[in-house]
Amino acid sequence: MNLYEFEGKEFFKKHGIAVPNGVDIIRGMDIAKAYQSLGITDVVVKAQVLSGKRGKNNGVRFCSSLPDVESAVSDLFSMNVRGQYVAAVRIEEKLNIDQEHYISITYDTDTQQPVLVYSNEGGMDIEDVENELIQKIPLDIRNTHVQTDIPFAQELWNCFLQEDCRVVEINPLVKTVDGQWVAADSKIALDDDAFFRHESWKELEPRTMMGRPPTDREIEVQKIDAGEGYYRGTAGKYIEMDGDIAILFSGGGASIANMDALINEGLQPANYTEYSGNPPTEKVYELTKTVLSKPGLKGLWIAGGVANFTDVEQTFKGIVWALDEIKPTYPIVVRRAGPFEAEGMELMRQCAERNNLNVQLFGKESSMSQTAAVLADAVKKI
Amino acid sequence: MAILIQKDSAVLVQGITGKEGQKAAAAMLEYGTNVVGGVRPGKAGEVVEGKPVYDTVQDAVAALGQIDVSAIYVPPFAAKQAMMEAIDAGVLQINVIVERIPIQDTAYCLAAAKEKNIQIIGPSSLGYIAPGIGRIGVVGGPKQLADEVFMPGSIGIISRSGGMTNEVSWQIRKAGMGQSTAVHVGGDLLMGTTYVDLLRQFEMDEQTKAVVLFGEHGGSYEFGIVEMIQKKEFTKPLAVYVGGKFANVLPEGMNIGHAGAIVARGQSAEEKSKALAAVGVMIADKYEDLVTRIKPYA
Question: Residues in domain ATP-grasp fold succinyl-CoA synthetase-type (chain A) (predicted)?
């Protein structure tokens, strides 16, 4: 999960990394009160979004009076920054900058270990900094100490390890004219797989990177895998999209290949959804109900590869329960194989018959991509 | 000869008393794999699928002698301890099926394994199968289905996805070819055994004449292949499908499919395909085209 700047700065403070004085505003809050509470005239007003390049895209404003601040805040709330939804606005003291540096820690897939990246050319994208000006220090995940005098390196490493981060970045890391080091920005990605050891993460608001607030359906689906059995077969993945073809894929790899195939056929997905790891019938039922609740659907594609150990009968039973309730009138194309495939397909066939559904069933004799073409034909006929 | 598995490899199942562990032990035995025992703390003395259970990997090694492979079937919060136990006991090959292990725990174990020259396949790996020889994990499913999909042959298979390991293997079989070894490397950002590691092993394997690979957008592992081909460290025909072309419409940093499939500049499906094509790798536009590309070399 990616954090907003203001959330990341709370983590920084906890680990002894200095951040500028600031206050956060959500829609509807009293701007004057917030600005005046800071007791500072010259401020920076910053859009809170889930990805970078905010400065270049007019997401940061310098203000020196209440009317300036008010108009900046309302302007930021009315815009998207590089397609990212502005969830909040942060007002901060303007720093007297002497130098801007860069520091981050992330996983390096070449060494399979964390790496600390540092440059004294901060304030811009690290990709745009010349290689000779970038220092890369490999870290050993088993050693809690960092041997370097780079400012905040140890604090950032503590934050990375103790908070189970996948990415921590300070850009710019500012040296003020009076010689203080301050984290002017923060970027943190938390490791979702470590939530079981971080009770406090439950308080973080649901979010999406799709450039809008998360939809009700997206929030609904996140609950499916919650609780103790979260790792026992997942069915809680749902990203709402603009198209009209409902998607129920099985398996992460198949889902990626199938999205490509669907778009190749000129169809547009209403959602991205994938269940895998042999989820129980109830999880698949909940997921299917949510997927099919989107208005304006024109087709449904249920597709997966030749399963290894996912029980096709038990997972299809969940889909059938939902189809029995909803009885869609648009074309449905199914492609699946694996354990108990015959039983699963028979459940589908009976469901189609008793509800008079427009369903076409395929096993492993057809490839998944071929059945995308079948769906495209069926949708065009209607 | 195949890679990774030999007929007599002694296999231990950690977490054998759990539902998934027991199912895996049964699946391996059914396929002729030499499963010698299992581990579950506090359950020493029990017997699962006719095999003895021990409290620790160390106890199992003491009682059974050398363990060649340990397959790990425990919940994600117990995975680090289980992996470290196998590493400390000196098991040279470890298959980790566990999904959703915190990345920090994975990195910790990979560092420890590397020091001892231990090969970890996974995490999030359903395992690997050498048709007619044996399998580690549950790739292929129940034996009857596995026999419909897998047949000894000359094609090596590598996949980021468990389902697609089976699906691609099926497409190969449907076209009349067989497989030398099919390996699911797992979909996490960090991979204990990378494409490059496996291609190195396939290069040395006489049975393998050509390799097909199912990759995904995100991560830099495909670029490692480019480098090894340039250095002539892999010289056999290779066909690759990189999924996730649609993902270029998604914002950077977003993740879809597997944990490692993160949208990132320089790591898109198109950029990877292009780089691979430039060094002579055959690129499939659809996953089933892997078969037509590789068939002349089988």
Answer: 2-142
